[in-house]
Amino acid sequence: MQRIKKNIIATFFSLLLISSLSAVPACAAVGGPNLKVTIVETNPYPAKIGEYLTLTVQVENIGGDKADNVDIEIVPQYPFSLDSQANAVKNIGVLYPGRTATKEFHLFVDKNAQKGVRSIDVRTKTDKDSPWSEKSFDIRIGTETFNSKGTVELKEVISEPQVFMPGDRGTITVTLTNTATTPTVTIGGNDFDTNARIQAAVLRPLSDGIVVLDAPYEDMGILGPGDSIKLTFNVKVTEEATEGTHNLELAIEGNSFDYNSKKNIPLKVDSSNIMVIPSKELTMINGKATIEFDVANTHPNEFNSVSIKPEAEGIRFYPAEYFIGPMNPDELFTIEFTAVADDSWNPRNEEGANMSLTANYNNGINRHVNTVGNLNFTSVSGSTESSPKAVLAGGLIIIAVPAAFLFYRRRKK
């Protein structure tokens, strides 16, 4: 009897556990829409007291499913205010996984606001029936003034990858250096230190197709004479970006307004890729062939993990995929495959077999694939090369004909 009671209790708790699991809302399931919010631009930066401020808010769907009807809402707090409450919510609509969208909000900074950092809340939801998700952002107001006289200059810019392809993500790393060479400097009879302060740094795209994924850097601290600091910004090139050089603006807030500066940062976009060209006739002889291809990197920078994979119905290839590895710009690499027909191969097919080659490669962290198709495999029976016996026989015939002719002339004489 005791054992039966224990079994009943165990069954009850098992059913309770199953019912609690089934009660988990669908929105918590892995693979649903998930929104990431970033303020990608504050203009002007820092915000000016008594003037309007434009916030560019970016929303990215990092989930596994589409968001049906995305809304963004700004919840301003003093000293920020909206010109109309009707402008607090902006609709994006459908946002598919991996896609981003941006909206601009215009706020007024109260004329009595104090210099410093204030917060503002941004709310988003994936559709009209889903709950709001809220995130707080810091906005700098006014400019702090310091008596230091160090000057910040842009020393180096490194893009990774060096040249982007449409759809690529990567980084732009800038090196800022305090160009002062002595600890102090005397100006007008007064001594000043030569430290340089970086109060803020923001990277802004100046053309369509380029998205900066990071918020501005703030309070970078003090750079002594000759010291440097590296700032890395994550950027994305959209699929619709045009080829060529795109410009971004690096705005730096220094010791005071006089030490603020703006630098031009170039970003190159080029869609050229891996080319694969047959270097031998694609002919199957008695169900077997050795085929050769020239592989060329036509892109302006190095590709990594380059591999070529052939495919054709009824044919097996050895190796199944040829791994080349890194390829420099304009580098040409010749590769070779052994093709062997299987039982489904029809050697009497006059049209031959359609063959394709797929090139896989990395541009920075981005994996790319392009395919060369409509390569025709033909088939012949027997060897197309002349055998040694045939060559010898042909040579003997060539020699024998003039010898017989000379013998005939001599007998006639």
Automatic annotation (TrEMBL):
UniProt keywords, alphabetically: Hydrolase, Membrane, Protease, Transmembrane, Transmembrane helix
Matches recorded under InterPro entries: Ig-like_fold (IPR013783)
Transmembrane intervals: 390-408
GO molecular function: peptidase activity
One Gene Ontology term from the biological process aspect of the record: proteolysis
Keyword Hydrolase: yes
PANTHER family tied to this protein: NPCBM-ASSOCIATED, NEW3 DOMAIN OF ALPHA-GALACTOSIDASE, S-LAYER DOMAIN-LIKE PROTEIN-RELATED
Name of protein: Putative carboxyl-terminal-processing protease, deltaproteobacterial
Species of provenance: Methanosarcina thermophila (strain ATCC 43570 / DSM 1825 / OCM 12 / VKM B-1830 / TM-1)
